[in-house]
C-alpha cells in the first residue's frame, strides 16, 4: 500500500509574525539537548525528537528556495535581459530570493539516501536528490531548468554544523551554478553560512559573503550579509542587512553599489549616473507562498520526500507525537536495513539522477539528464 503525500505550506516572510517557536519552553528543551555536547562538536548526525522538527525534509526546504516564489519568474528574467550587466543584476535578484526566513529551534528532517523532491512552478522544474549519506558530510544535489528561457541551475550542498557554546555555526559548502544557455553565460556563486544563536538572544540568520562571478562577461558581484559581525550575533542588529557591489573582475572598477535588507528591499546605485533602483522586494516574492499540490498521484515517486516522511509530518501537524516518533523510527530503520543489504552484497549506493564527484577537497554534483521533466507535484497558479 502506497503512502499518502503530505505537503505543507512553505515557510514565508509573513509567517514569521505568527511564529510561536521561540517560547521559553522550547528554549529549555533545546538547551537540554546540548547539555552533554562539547563546544566544537560536529553536529552533522545529531538526531532531534519530532517535537523539534519542521514537518518537511531538508530536501523540501532546499527545493523551495528555487520553486517557491509568489508568482514572480525571477529566474526567467535573467535570460530575458539584453545587456550583460542587466543579466548579472537579475542573477543577483534571483539569488537574493533564495534567502528565506528561518525558524529558531525547529529543523527539517535529515534526508535519507536516495530521497528525492520533484516540483514544478510554471516554466521552472526542480529536482532534488539526497545523492549520498556515506560521504562526510552528506551531499544533496539540486537541478532546475527553465523551459522557456533555456536556463540550467545546479546546486551541490553539504554542510558542517559546529556547536560553539553560545551558538551553532553551520558552514554551507558546495557551489551554485546558473547557465544562461541562450547567451552562453555561466554564473558561479557560493552559499552563505547559517548561524543559530542560543545565548543571550535566540535567533537564526544567514551570514557571510556571497560572491557571484561570470567568466564570459568578466562581471562580478559581492554581497556581504552584515550579520557576520560578532556583535550582531548577540544583539540581533542588522541581522538581515546587505551591502555589496557589482564590478569588473579584471580592473576592479565598481559599477554599482548594493544596499538594503534581504527581507525588505535591496537597492542598486549606478555609480556612473547616480541612478538608484530597487532590484529586489521580498514582500513581492517570498510572502504568501502557496502550498504545492499533487497533479498526478500515479507519477509521484516512492522516494518523494513528501511521501517518505508523510506519517511523521502528519503526526507533527496533528501534535500526535507518538505517531510522529514511530513514523520517524520506521523511516530510519528502513534506511539502516537498506544499508545492511548493500553492505552484505558488497554494493555501494549509486544516485539515480546525479553523478557525485570529488572536486579537489570539495564535492560536485553533475545531473545525468540535460533537462528536468515536469513534475507530478506543482505550485498552483
Automatic annotation (TrEMBL):
One of its GO terms (biological process) is lipid transport. GO terms for cellular component: cytosol; membrane. It holds the Pfam family Oxysterol_BP. Keywords: Lipid transport, Lipid-binding, Transport. Residues 321-343 have a biased composition (Basic and acidic residues). InterPro entries: OSBP_sf, Oxysterol-bd. It comes from the Eukaryota. GO terms for molecular function: sterol binding. Residues 321-346 are annotated as: Disordered. May be involved in the transport of sterols. Belongs to the OSBP family. This is (rape) hypothetical protein. It comes from Brassica napus (Rape).
